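# step 3/5: fold
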Amino acid sequence: MGKALKLAPPLAWREFGLGDVAARPEQWGDVVLARKDTPTSYHLAVVVDDALQGVTDVVRGKDLFHATSVHRLLQQLLGLPAPDYRHHELLLDARGEKLSKKPGVQNAARIARRGVAPLEARALAGRATL
């Protein structure tokens, strides 16, 4: 991370409703970008994929808000454009845990595929809240 930060100016991203947010990638320390068993990390994959697709606006959950600092650094180092961001509240179940893509877990996508209206979907997801 230290070497990467020397190659980049101070960075920020445009966040819907907040304006410019200072990126703080140094808070992450060294970030794994690839391993023998996984050719690329989430961080590297999303910045390259977004750029290749010409994405101009990224909408992700608030759980990924701080990871955007790493994404901005990678975009800068790779010469990729920086999209605008909007990090939304997470849909949570009755225990306050986020709905998941994990197998066997009730999630919003499965509920939506059944043709359930959004407000009813929240109830089916375990009295989920935003």
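# step 4/5: annotate
The longest strand covers residues 57-61.
# step 5/5: archive (pending)
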